[in-house]
Specification:
two-stranded antiparallel sheet, 14 strands, 12-stranded antiparallel beta sheet, 273 residues
């Protein structure tokens, strides 16, 4: 995924592993998120934490995020180690607690960050720290509120979706024809035609299977002729090795997408719907 703002660019690429344990299911993302500021002063890279959905079979569904998130500014060398506390029936802490330390490039603890991932985050300057009986105690200045959740437009019947989530599937004729908003089964479902949506979904999946079989057959023919099998080429992205993480990622091909969007030239897009 790639998106741009006035002063920043965000890209992320990850795969998801899942574990089902009867009463709950955990989703473990692997990959990186990168936020780069165009003034060149910051390039933040981090990995996501685990999300667990509880009461999968019986009871009211609820979600918990837990794990440690390490955020690194690869320009300045500063980093943040943020812990998302997992829910515990035996803990007196309020659920969804988050806390962590922000360190400078020399590894010195400079700020303490704390709050709850579903409501707010505070930050405080660390004035002093000391070891006491094997524990590190910190003294901080007055905390400052740096983020407060924006109340969702809808209620629980709308899953507490944000404005972005509610409007995400609104049709937009200015985007590429491969955009998921053009999925015919999705449009039928949003219009309340459930049977029609299911039929179109089956047709799309059959089309995808045929395309995969064709690609596999071409690869087999190439191997049989001692040739390199053709590799899938994305329209707007290219594979590169990230210099910061060492992983192979997809990066957007310059401004090609935006130029094609302005010209309304989508001739390179495959027919997937």
């Amino acid at each position: 995924m790639h998106t741009e703002g006035v002063n920043w660019e965000l890209s992320q690429e990850f795969m998801v592993a899942s574990r089902f344990r009867g009463k709950y299911m955990s989703v473990i993302p692997t990959g990186y998120t990168q936020i780069k500021f165009k003034d060149g002063k910051a390039n933040f890279i981090f990995q996501k934490v685990t999300t667990t959905v509880h009461n999968i079979i019986v009871g009211r569904l609820w979600i918990d995020n837990h794990g440690t998130m390490n955020i690194v500014n690869h320009v300045s060398g500063e980093r943040a180690n943020i812990k998302f506390h997992s829910y515990s029936y035996f803990s007196s802490d309020q659920p969804r607690k988050v806390e962590g330390i922000i360190l400078d490039k020399k590894g010195n603890a400079r700020f303490y960050i704390f709050g709850y991932w579903d409501s707010y985050l505070n930050i405080a300057l660390i004035n002093n720290q000391k070891n006491q009986q094997g524990k590190v105690l910190i003294e901080t200045g007055e905390p400052k509120r740096i983020w407060t959740v924006k109340e969702p437009l809808g209620d629980s019947s709308m899953f507490n979706f944000t404005k972005l989530a509610i409007e995400m599937n609104e049709p937009d004729n200015q985007v590429a024809p491969t955009d998921s908003r053009f999925r015919p089964d999705q449009r039928l479902m949003e219009n309340g035609d459930w049977d029609g949506a299911n039929d179109r979904k089956n047709e799309l999946e059959d089309k995808q299977r045929k395309a995969r079989r064709k690609a596999e057959a071409e690869a087999e023919r190439a191997i049989a002729n001692n040739q390199q099998p053709p590799e899938y080429q994305a329209c707007w992205f290219q594979k590169v090795q990230d210099t910061n993480t060492g992983s192979v990622i997809h990066t957007i091909r310059g401004n090609e997408y935006w130029v094609c969007k302005e010209k309304k030239d989508w001739s390179r897009c495959p027919n997937i719907y």
